[in-house]
Amino acid sequence: MHGSRISRSLAMVAGLAAVAACGALDLPTPEQAEQQWIARDDAACRSGSASCCERLAGRYLHGQGVDQDGAQAASYYQLACASGTPANCIALAKLLSDGQLMPPDYERARGVLQQTCERGDGLACYDLARMCMDGKGGAKDYAAAVPLLEKACAKNQSDACRAQDEIERQRLVRQDLGRFAGGHPPDGLSLATSPARYAAPLKEWFKGGIQVPFPYAIEDIPAAPKDLSTVTDVRNELRDSQLVVSGRVSVGRLPKGFHVSEHSPQPGSYRRWVMGYVISPDGKVLWSDEASFVDGDWSDGNGSRPAKFSIVADAPRQSLTNASLVLLVTGDPISICPEDRGGAVVLGAVVKPL
Fold first, then answer.
1. Which of 136, 172, 254, 311 could pair with 245 in a Cys bridge, judged by C-beta atoms 3.0 to 4.6 Å apart?
2. Biggest alpha carbon distance in the chain?
C-alpha cells in the first residue's frame, strides 16, 4: 500500500516537472475570471435564473466589474422581476423613478409597482401609493393612494398604516369618494347652486381658499337647500397669541331626501362639524381650525339639543380689521340621493364681523 502511494506521489512530481519544462500554467487573470463569471451569469439569467439576473443588475447598479449603467441594471432587474420575485420588481421601480443613473420613467415604474401590488406584495402597494402622494408621474393624488395604503397596511407595512392615518388626520381625502355615482350632487343641492341664504356669501370664498371639509370643487360640495343650523352665543377673543371662538350649535330635522348614511359609525346618527375661518376683506383665509365639542357632536336625523363648541388656535399675524368670522356647520355622513354613500354636507353657516 505504501509503495503505491509513493508511486503516485512520484508521478505527480514528474508531471509537474514536465509542465514546468513546457512553460508556466496559462491561468486567467482576475479580470478575465470575472468576465467569465459575468458571461455565465448572463447565460443563466436568460435561461430563467432570477438570482443570476439580480446579481448582474447589482453589478451594473454599483459598477462592480462593469461600468455603472442604469439602463443595463434596469434590463436585468426586468428579467428578474419577470421571474416572479417581488423584491426585484420593487428594485426596478426604484431605479426607474429615482432618476440617479437614468432619466426617470415614472409611468413605467408605476406599471411595475401596480402589477406587483396586484400580485399581493404590500411593499409594492406602499411604494405606488407614495408615488401618488408625491406626484411622481402626475398630480398629487391622495385619493388614489388610499386603497393602496389600505392593502399595504393589511400586509403589515407599518409605514403605510402611518401614512393612512396621516391622510385621515389632515383630511387630505374625503372618505365618501365615488359619491353621486361619479357625478355632481342633484340640482340645487351643491354649494354652487344652493338657493340657501347662507350659501351666498360663501360661494366666492370657497373659490379662493375655503375647502370644507376636504378639497372638493364648489360644484361637488353638497349643501342643504336652507340653513338647518342654529348657532348662538358666539364669542371671539384674543388670548395671548391665540384666537378663541366659542358658542353653541344645534341642527334641525334633516329635510326630505336627506338621511343618515348606512356607513355611519354610529347607526342612525351623524357627526356635526363646525369649522371656523377668518376671512380678510379681499377674500383670503387668514385663519382656520376645527371646533371641539364639549357636549358631544353626534346628532340624529331629527336634530338634537344644542352642543357647546370651542375653537382655539394660534391667532393670525395679519390685521383682523374689517375681517369676517365664518362658522361653517356640516354633518357627516349624510346621504342626499340614492347613489350617494354618504359624506359631509354643508348644513348652515354664520358670518359675522370681527
1. 311
2. 117
3-state DSSP helix/strand/coil percent for the chain, to nearest 5?
Answer: 40, 20, 35
205's grid cell: 370664498
223: DSSP letter: B
* Sign of the torsion formed by the C-alpha atoms of 253, 254, 260 and 265: negative
pLDDT band at 184 (very low <50, low <70, confident <90, very high): confident
* Contact status, residue 105 vs residue 94, Cβ threshold 8 Å: no
**What residues are paired with 118 via a beta bridge?**
none
C-alpha 71, offset from chain centre? 29
Q: pTM above 0.70? A: no
Q: Which residues pair with 287 in a beta bridge?
A: 278
Strand 307-314 relative to strand 242-251: parallel, antiparallel, unpaired?
A: antiparallel
What is the C-alpha R_g of the chain?
A: 33
pLDDT value of position 214: 59
Sheet holding 292-293, edge to edge: 229-239, 242-251, 307-314, 292-293
What is the CATH number that goes with domain 30-170? 1.25.40.10
What's the CATH fold of domain 179-353? Immunoglobulin-like (2.60.40)
Name the residue type at position 279: I
- Proportion of the chain above pLDDT 90, given as a percent: 44
What is the length of the chain?
A: 354
